[in-house]
Every structure is written in C-alpha cells, then in structure tokens.
Amino acid sequence: MKPLVAIVECAIEHENKFLIIKRPEGGHASGLYAFPGGKVEDKDTKSSDDVLATAARREVVEEVGLDLKDPLRYVCSATFENPQGEQFLVTVFHCKINRTNPKVIPSSREAPEHYWLSGDEVMHDKQSPPWLRKYMAQVLATRISGGALH
Q1: What is the domain count for the chain?
Q2: What span, in angstroms and rounded, lies between the C-alpha atoms of 10 and 74?
Q3: How many whole angstroms from its chain centre is CA 22?
Q4: Position 112 in a domain
Q5: pLDDT of the chain along its 150 residues, tens only?
Q6: Given this model, what pLDDT does residue 144 score?
Q7: Among 9, 23, 33, 34, which residue's Cα sits nearest to residue 95?
Q8: Is residue 150, in this structure, part of any structural domain at all?
Q9: Domain membership flag for residue 89
Q10: What is the pLDDT of residue 142?
Q11: H/E/C letters for each residue in 96-133?
Q12: Considering the domain boundaries, does residue 122 fall inside one?
C-alpha cells in the first residue's frame, strides 16, 4: 500500500454562512470551491499533540488570514487517489466563529477568491464538487447533533 498524504480542511462558520475559497487555477480541483485547508506538514507534528487540528489552524491562517480562537470539531474523514496514483487522507473540521475576528485576508496564491455562503448555497452551486457537498452535508448534520471539540 502506498503511503497516505494527510490533508485537513476546515468548515468555518460565521452568522450561518461558511467561508468557501475558490481553488487557484493549475492545481488540484482548480476553479472549484473548497473549505480552506491543505497538507499536514512536518512542522505540525512538532508543535502540538493534536497534529491535525494544528495543521488545520495553520492552513487557515496561510490561506485566509484567520487566526482561529474558537474550538475545532472533528466532522469526518475520507480517502481519495489523484490521477498520479497518490493516496490522500482528508480530515474535515468545523469551527463556529465566536471569538475569532472574521475579517478574511486571503492569500492571492492559495485563495484567489472567497465567499461566505449558506450551507444550501454550497450544496447547490455548480462550482461545489461532489466531495465538498458530501463534507458540507456532514458538517450540517453534525452541527445539529454536536460532537467532540478539539
């Protein structure tokens, strides 16, 4: 079995809207909507006992400039293989903003466009790929039922 590359994504919620970025052209899922996130890096493994949450917080700062002060809640995980045959493990978190400043300062390289969209808008927009819709449905379902905080 090939090694898995760990990826984290964060569904950031503020006033019943979710922060969605448009992936830059030329990369994986270019031009499609996504939650902010990215690969777990070596430095994430050295700074905390909670490697995935640490990576999610770092990626959010890098992509959209939000320093999350609110708890992250685990939502789901999934695997996929890219066209080059690499295996990925995606872990999705949810963060409802209460104490975090919601002012987005996007990275022009990593998040050239961003939007605050309702869950329904994410579910029905043609730029939302099937996996984002799946993750959004799970965020909405677990948001109601609760879950572990990180």
Answers
A1: 1
A2: 9
A3: 12
A4: yes
A5: 678 999 999 999 999 999 999 987 776 667 899 999 999 999 998 877 799 999 999 999 999 999 999 999 999 999 999 888 899 999 999 999 999 999 999 998 888 899 999 999 999 999 999 999 999 999 999 876 555 444
A6: 63
A7: 9
A8: no
A9: yes
A10: 87
A11: ECCCCCCCCCCCCCCCCEEEEECHHHHHHCCCCCHHHH
A12: yes
* CA distance linking residue 67 with residue 58, whole number of Å: 8
> What is the radius of gyration, based on Cα positions, of the chain?
14
- Domain with 20, as residue range(s), is 4-145
Tokens of 48: 């905390």
**Amino acid in position 136:** M
User: Which tokens hold the place of 106?
Assistant: 């996007």
Contact in structure between 106 and 64 (CB atoms under 8 Å): yes
CA quadruple 94, 19, 140, 44: dihedral, nearest 10: -20
Place of tokens 């309702």: 118
pLDDT on residue 37: 96
CATH number reported for the structural domain that contains residue 67 in this entry: 3.90.79.10
Both tokens of residue 79?
A: 């695997």
| Lookup result for tokens 């400039």 | 65
Distance CA 87, CA 115 (A): 29
